[in-house]
From TrEMBL:
GO terms for molecular function: carbon-carbon lyase activity; pyridoxal phosphate binding. Its cofactor is pyridoxal 5'-phosphate. PANTHER family: PTHR42735, SPHINGOSINE-1-PHOSPHATE LYASE 1. The keyword Repressor does not apply. It comes from Flavobacterium orientale. Keywords: Lyase, Pyridoxal phosphate. This is Cytochrome d ubiquinol oxidase subunit I. One of its GO terms (biological process) is carboxylic acid metabolic process. Belongs to the group II decarboxylase family. Sphingosine-1-phosphate lyase subfamily. The keyword Transport does not apply.
Amino acid sequence: MEFWKKRTPAERLHHIEKALQENVNFSKDASLGYPASKLDGKVFYDDAPFLKDAPVLMTFVANPNHIGCHTTGTSEKAFKGTQQIERETLDILAVDIFGAEKNQFDGYIASGGTEANLQALWMYRNNFMKHFGAQPTEIAILASEDTHYSIAKGANLLLIDWLSVPVGFENRKIDKEALNTMLAVAMEKGKKYFIVVCNMGTTMFGSVDNPDDYCEVLENYNVPFSIHIDAAYGGFVYPFLAKETTALSFKNPKVSSITVDAHKMLQAPYGTGIFICRKRLIENVLTQEAQYVEGMDLTLSGSRSGANAVAVWMILNTYGPNGWFEKIKILQMRTDWFCQQLDQMKIAYFREPNMNIVTIKSAFIPEETAARFDLVPQKHNDQNQWYKVVLMEHVEVDHLNQLLEELKEATVTVTT
Ligand SMILES: *Cc1c(COP(=O)(O)O)cnc(C)c1O
């Protein structure tokens, strides 16, 4: 670990206070040109006594705007203190967790996984258009049927097709033969450039794609492609539990960008989706017309709160790498325990061993039970075949036991 450390509360407070001092202070400084200020003082009192010990809230009230991207070029100097906190946060994620080389990546804290995925698709679409002379109709996204719907959103916005790759019903793995056939058909129809989205933990199953499945088939056809990893949910789980994660990191030269959400497993406030990509790619989405923004703009969002960067930095530096590993390990143990109970009850489910999601076949779960425990169905219609249990921090063995007791009592006709 080059950047990631556990720090004491005093160290964290001091670090954030120092960063805020380097920002413009709307309470004191003569700052006349920005359409920005601290939060409304009648509603958000900046002299509330608890703020002095609460770095994230203090930043929230100071209201820094992190508009633009701060890993390359110049940035708005008024917020340079907290922009540095954002860079430190990205260093931990890109280098220490996802194996990037120091200073060899760009990125920013987006509004969420959706925006980070859109940013990736937008960047690759433009890259193929600018550097390969591609037409949007010649570009296609390849991603499994279990992929998050933000990819469908992106395909729609960017006017490129998404080819949804089927997965095995039981193992949720990419059907390579189907992929091969789809690709042949797509190329016949004029697709020449491919954007691959590999999942590190799908939303419904926690399933993890193997990028080599895509690479083998695409290399066989000798077509240009780029790989994005959607680790929105799994990015703070899988890398800590799996023995071998090289293929799904920047150590794999074929991977060029990653999405990870801090507002899911990391329990940061909403608005903390992280986008990271290799150097010399993000320029493809430069908006030169953003002339009032120092350094112009390389991000999908415009104004965004610097307090989000501070929140993610605070969580990471409160746990440190070992503290985070222990926390995730406990969730894995609970998931193991839950799966053992299901095995004993002969209830069928899918689970990726290095993830904390258990997706149970709906035939084993009465609808009232699913509703009582807020289990999420794969489909909100009569086609549903699965319900998932996500072992977040608040999901303890006692809660799981209540569900198991109900399932034991339920006289379900098992149809599978
Ligand atoms: C949640 C999720 C997203 C979208 O993230 P938001 O933060 O809700 O925008 C994208 N991909 C995966 C795999 C997710 O689990």
